[in-house]
Write a structure and sequence with these properties.
Blueprint lengths: L2 H32 L3 H23 L16 H5 L30 H5 L15 E4 L6 H9 L5 H7 L1 H4 L11 E4 L2
Antiparallel strand pairs: 1-2
Helix pairs in contact: 1-2, 5-6
């Protein structure tokens, strides 16, 4: 039995007690009206005693609260008539960067892990600083090039971001003979 059920049952009991007291009072009053002389005063005494008992029970009952505020419940028509506020689009959380050299798992461009990690920012070349280059060989992947030349396979995104124009839209297909600029 929940709290609200308990409160409802208490209200019902108080209401039933008040009704029973009212009925008893009416019966006593009817008997008093029928009788005459000394019995009439006894009936009047019983009626006043019943009235007093009803007042005591009403005083002992929990106080009645005013009408509930007009708050629409989820099942009511008023609730359905009010449009819900728009929800902001959820932004994916960035994964913490790997601090260990040579990550054990490099996400592919089509995996969920790849989509959850933002691409490395594209840096503009510094004037006077010459970038290193690498010529792609048959069987090379961006991860293998990044591991060999940059010391960390996880930096393949950075390599792809710098050479997107040379590689194309699919980082899995690196054309042999392409000259890639290596990040510093």
């Amino acid at each position: 039995m929940g709290l609200f059920d308990f409160l409802k049952s208490d209200k019902k009991k108080a209401h039933e007690n008040a009704e029973n007291a009212g009925k008893a009072q009416a019966q006593v009053q009817q008997q008093a009206d029928k009788g005459a002389g000394p019995s009439r005063s006894a009936a009047a005494d019983a009626a006043s005693a019943t009235r007093a008992a009803a007042e005591r029970m009403a005083a002992a009952a929990p106080p009645r609260r005013g009408p509930a505020p007009a708050t629409p419940t989820p099942g009511s028509a008023a609730h359905k008539a009010v449009p819900a506020p728009p929800r902001p689009a959820a932004m994916p959380k960035a994964a913490p960067p790997s601090t260990s050299p040579g990550a054990a798992y490099t996400p592919t461009p089509h995996s969920a892990a790849h989509k959850a990690v933002p691409a490395a920012p594209v840096t503009k070349p510094q004037p006077g600083v010459k970038n290193r280059t690498y010529t792609v060989k048959q069987g090379d992947t961006l991860a293998s090039i990044a591991g060999r030349e940059l010391g960390n396979e996880a930096r393949w995104r950075e390599l792809y971001a710098m050479n997107r124009g040379v590689i194309g839209a699919n980082p899995d297909l690196v054309p042999p003979g392409a000259v890639l600029t290596l990040p510093s």
